[in-house]
Amino acid sequence: MGHARYDGRGWMAVSPGYFDIFEIPVLRGRAFADRDDEAAGRVALVNEAFARKSPQAERLVLGQGYGPEFEEPARQIVGIVGDVHDAGLSRDP
Prior knowledge:
The chain has helices at about 20, 50-55, and strands at about 1-5, 25-30, 45, 55-60, 75-80. By secondary structure, the protein is of the alpha/beta class. It has one domain (about 1-80). The radius of gyration is 13 Å and the shape is globular. The relative contact order is 0.29.
């Protein structure tokens, strides 16, 4: 199992409850919780498309390719959510 690097294009910060409100299913693992704050370890959820491309990834580094000031420490992947087409139906999830 390893790290996946993600260039930051297409990620977004969300709050606990986001996936419930928009009825995006958590397929594996868990959604964000109130305990996932600045004092806790960094966590991430990924969609099915990402999980298919990087099936062995346990951790995720955001900001790759934007320069060292944007690259963050690795985040633990705690869940996989269903794919959504928030950028339009003709675009990949």
